[in-house]
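Repro:
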Amino acid sequence: MIEQTTPHTVVASWRRMLVLGCVLLAFAGMSVRAFYLQVLEGDFYQQKGERQQVKEVIIPAHRGMLLDRNGIPLAISAPVNAVCVNPREFHATSTQIKQLAKYLGQSPKKINSKIARHRNRIFLYLKRQMAPSLAEKIDALGIKGLFLQNEFRRYYPAGEVTAHLLGFTDIDQRGQEGLEKWFDARLHGAPGIKKVLRDRRARIIEDIELVRPPRPGKDVRLSLDARLQYWAYRALKQAVKSHKARGGSAVMLDARTGEVLALANQPAFNPNARGSLRPERFRNRAIVDVFEPGSTMKPIAMACALKAGVVHPGLVVDTRPGRLKVGRHWVRDHRNEGPLDLAGILHKSSNVGITKVTLRLTPQRFFSCLQGFGIGQAVGVDFPGEARGVLTDYRGWGAFEQATLAFGYGLSVSALQLARAYTVFADEGRLHSVSLTPRMVDEQSMRVIPAATARLVRTMLEGVVSKEGTARRAKIPGYRVAGKTGTVRKAIPGGYSKDRYLSLFVGMAPASAPRLVLVVIIDEPQGKHYYGGEVAAPAFSHIMGAALRLMGIAPDRVPEESPLFVRHGDGEMG
């Protein structure tokens, strides 16, 4: 039987062929498109996909630690997290935003506004240096476009105690003040780079390739002794507080190496509390501030005269009637001290006596000797903002200018410079360079006066700390102490203030063979007590006494004082 073809059958067959042709055509088109995308343009689209999902991220480098001389950490870097977003992809529910705002300590409105203002960016910090435990809670919210980034935060275990010397870093671990700034190149290191695969929420799901490993910063060991630093800070703070002073500084040097063992200032600041940092408190007064040193210059002037041979130990100087006219000006003592030997001039802090001694020197020779003690010269620690002080050229001096230099006016020094100058008396006439890092020997030290002269002046300075000297409150049980007080009127426009003072004491111990030199300065003590022997000397005693005991330095006090040390006078100015 022959099947007959009907019009309906023809139409059905044509339709099948049409559908089949369309399918084949579509398949061919898809094949061509696939060939085009995967073969001809495969590299382009693969790179595009990788750009969207594969990212290069920075691997932060661990900043090196600052350590004290005994290896105690003074500045360390702790791992923290930054909360980041891609504003183009950021999407969160109102509930998520409220929770995020709670963790960040911000308002939901502020977060939304910040992201809206930067909608065209692909990266934005919401908050940096968050504790990992809190950052993990934020990450667990599952907000699209939000992710965490590893970083470090600088932490200072001693807080205020070491703040002025160490300084601090910025949020990116770059040194901004103090030793953090000075040693930044050694501490900072170099960040690394790695390629990572991110998911649609920009979270890292896989590390693909380490492009460059991070290079951690190097640790820096300082000459500072954390124990001595604590005592210096504590005693200085107490002295400033009890005398309601404007501020103060304390600097302790190793008398044999010039190392800085302690350096403290008041008022201080806490580098860990970044929100409360006040720029006016960052200044390291002991290194960057200068002042007229007053009577603490008298031993230096005496040493210069002895070195030049214009006076001898047995000389007696008549200081009567307690004043002396030099040119058109008067030099005055606190009271009429009468005839004084050289030791008595220092014990009673006689301006008239030291003027008569110093004017025996030629201006050029006196100027050269002062330079030998480091006056008017930077100490060379290269600390940011280090002061040079001021010592005018001798060719501009008259007799009165030379006289005022002898009792500490008309020139300026920093606390660190003054401490350095006294290493000459402490170490047999050698002036030491100053170091903020440990060393066994100071190869740059140089002799500026004979050893015998240094010992003679040091003996005179022991009398200043005798029970009838101007600094009897600087005594330390069991130890011989040598030093000098200073009470300086502060300069104001048009002259000197009548009620604003600097109270100073600089000394060394044990006086028989000094190991430590310490300067204490109290700025503008209030009340009836303002002499250096009343204000700065007790703080010196507390700091130096603790240091001698902590370092295990043997006592050297003899049972009775030599008659040479018995001098009188309890007031001094200059």
